[in-house]
């Protein structure tokens, strides 16, 4: 298959001012393609209501994570990730795998922890257009995994009102207001949620940032860190 991280065209203004890696450009391009299909989600509340089921299904990935954490040290290193991709028949190049690893290793400790692994798998789901991807996911033994990832994609599509592959502050406010019309707190809720997503503080949220915030919202990290709510988000 051809590389997914090939040279991409510069995004149109005003996005041109946002620094972007090749992988991030491909994420936004893949999301824009998906956004042409629209979203089945009608309110932010409906996303929140899905949190428990999403949490339950994502935690089932723990079995996969432990299988590929070959030295059982609680993190998947670059070599272990390559082994995992080989076993799952995900045909990314070494460069593509390295780019994904770097993108998801948020604390830059050369290890993919469980919540980071979930984000990585979901990015693979979004980026992988080769038919073997479906075969790979079916081998995971988690029939709900693809449905869960699609729900996360659908949630982002709902938030991205102008379908440019990024969520802005205004789009987040609009999404919250559609649900909590008339509530004075809705603006504060939107800003808090947006700030939790926009951890590089560039004013725009891409799908990767959204995924990291989402794993935090549903509590994926809680079983990794007993402090739960007290854990500081990157």
UniProtKB/TrEMBL annotation:
Origin: domain of life: Eukaryota
SMART domains the record matches: EFh
CDD domains registered for this protein in UniProt: EFh
Classification via SUPFAM superfamilies: EF-hand (SSF47473)
Stretches assigned to the EF-hand domain: 56-91, 92-127, 147-182, 185-220
GO terms for MF: calcium ion binding
Signal sequence, start to end: none
InterPro entries for the chain: CML21-like, EF-hand-dom_pair, EF_Hand_1_Ca_BS, EF_hand_dom
Keyword tags: Calcium
Annotated region (Disordered), positions in chain: 1-22
PROSITE patterns per UniProt: EF_HAND_1, EF_HAND_2
Name recorded for this polypeptide: EF-hand domain-containing protein
């Amino acid at each position: 298959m051809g590389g997914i991280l090939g040279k991409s065209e510069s995004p149109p203004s005003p996005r041109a001012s946002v620094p972007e890696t090749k992988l991030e450009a491909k994420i936004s391009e893949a999301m824009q393609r998906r956004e042409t299909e629209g979203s089945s989600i009608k309110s932010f509340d409906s996303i929140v209501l899905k949190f428990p089921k999403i949490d339950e299904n994502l935690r089932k990935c723990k079995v996969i994570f432990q299988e590929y954490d070959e030295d059982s040290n609680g993190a998947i290193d670059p070599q272990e990730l390559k082994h995992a991709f080989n076993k799952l028949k995900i045909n990314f190049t070494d460069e593509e795998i390295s780019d994904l690893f770097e993108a998801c290793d948020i604390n830059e400790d050369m290890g993919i922890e469980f919540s980071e692994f979930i984000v990585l798998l979901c990015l693979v789901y979004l980026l992988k257009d080769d038919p073997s991807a479906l075969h790979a996911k079916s081998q995971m033994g988690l029939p709900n995994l693809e449905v869960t990832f699609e729900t996360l994609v659908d949630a982002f599509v709902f938030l991205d009102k102008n379908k440019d592959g990024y969520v802005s502050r205004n789009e987040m406010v609009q999404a919250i207001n559609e649900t909590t019309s008339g509530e004075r707190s809705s603006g504060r809720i939107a800003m808090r949620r947006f700030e939790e997503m926009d951890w590089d503080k560039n004013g725009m949220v891409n799908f990767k940032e959204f995924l990291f915030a989402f794993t935090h919202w549903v509590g994926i990290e809680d079983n990794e860190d007993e402090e739960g709510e007290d854990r500081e988000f990157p």
